[in-house]
Amino acid sequence: PVNKTFSEHLQQRRMLSESQNEVSVPVSGPEVSEPRASVVPVVMSKLSAKAPEFYPSGYNQNYNQNFTDSSFEDCYLTLAEYVQDFLNHLTEQPGCFETEVEQFSETLNGWVTEDEALQELVELIYQQATSVPHFSYMGARLCNYLSHRLTISPQSGNFRQLLLQRCRTEYENRNEATKGDESTRKQFHAFVLFLAELYLNLEIKGTKGQATRAEILQEGLRELLNALFSNPVDNNLICAVKLLKLTGSVLEDTWKEKGKNDMEEIIQKIENVVLDANCSRDVKHMLLKLVELRSSNWGRVCGNSSHTEATPENDPNYFMNEPTFYTADGVPFTAADPDYQEKYQELLERENLFPEDEENGIDLSGPGDM
Asked: What is the pTM (predicted TM-score) of this model?
């Protein structure tokens, strides 16, 4: 089946390991050539009236039963192997997060008992969140969950502290990264968007015990925006637009509560880039649309406002829910990309979505083709 749980994946892995250790029994040869009378042994029933309810195979009654310590040790030799397998599983089936993350954290509590193991865990999750497309949100959710569930807290810091230290290492190289080559900037942009997801998803306890966001991440995002705008090449500006679309409303609300006008300063930077920078026309258009989005309160509609149908003219948020397409090389692109028209035309030609034979409404389906 396509939607296989991680416990089923583990069970299949264990069965494969056991099958490799089985010894084959000969079915022919001198040893078994003569017929022998078979003796049927007496089998004593192990059934009990107190036995638990019967569940058919494939029904996951209790995830923990399929993930015992013995099966775990049989399938995985290292922490890195286990964690990477689970991260890949979440990447392929993100809907399994709610049902399987609890057992994942419980297993880690039994495995991660030293400082080195905790640092290795942080690095594995960080690399997955910044190198695998579209895993930044899931990685941030996983980090938030583990920050509240992992029991180990060595002198070097707990899970959340080590995670923030790892992010700080990348953060301190922000000015060099924005001026680096294309590969360096791409890696840096992935980090920026992961940090944005962490800001939105990582919950810490406030002074009164309430859940709040990490203020240090808010300050970090502000400086990252400054670094991106300081070298206004196209991909840096596109990253800044994505960052502000993701966190702009939350950042501005928080700054206003503190009496700060940081968002006004950012909008001024954007307007200066549009006037002076040598970026492409499409990127300048994206920046102007972002300014319009902010002027409409980031697309948020008050509850007492009358309903009007959204159009590109009256809703700056109109194009934000455009579908994601993929090039022949598997690279995702949306209407926000500067070369969207060119890539989309290549997609139409590759997929042959509008063949000439189907023009003018002619039905070409044969009998029974429905």
From this structure: 0.67
